[in-house]
Amino acid sequence: MILVNLSPLIFCFTIGQTTDIHVPADVSDAMVPIYTLRGMKVATVKRSEVFQYLQTLPHGIYIVDGKKIGR
């Protein structure tokens, strides 16, 4: 255990403990908006169908779920 004293705050860290990130099953097929870099909404599709839909769009960079995706 590491104690860090930055008065008036005290932080306690436990080393050796791991955590996982899990995606809830019910949101894995949620509807996701697709935007152009100019902020124009192109479509809203299921998360599982995003890459199939991107193939139908003109080449460019799109924002999908907050991430830039190149086509």
Descriptive report:
- The structure is a single chain.
- It is built from one helix and six strands.
- By secondary structure, the chain is mainly beta.
- The protein has a domain at about 30-70.
- The strands form two sheets. A four-stranded antiparallel sheet has the order 4-3-5-6, with no helix packed on it. Strands 1-2 form a two-stranded antiparallel sheet.
- The longest helix has 5 residues, at about 50-55.
- The protein is elongated and about 50 Å long.
- It starts with a strand and ends with a strand.
- Residues about 1-5 have low confidence and may be disordered.
In brief:
The chain is mostly beta strands and 71 residues long.
Topology of helices and strands:
Blueprint: E1 2-6, E2 9-13, E3 31-36, E4 41-46, H1 50-54, E5 61-64, E6 67-70
Give me the number of helical elements.
1
The class by helix and strand makeup works out as: mainly beta
How far the N terminus sits from the C terminus, by CA atoms, comes to 47 Å
Q: Count the E strands.
A: 6
Question: What topology, given as strand order, has the largest sheet?
Answer: 4-3-5-6
Average pLDDT, all residues: 78
Percentage of residues in DSSP E strands? 35-45%
Q: What's the helix-strand series? A: EEEEHEE
> How would a textbook summarize the main sheet?
4 strands, antiparallel
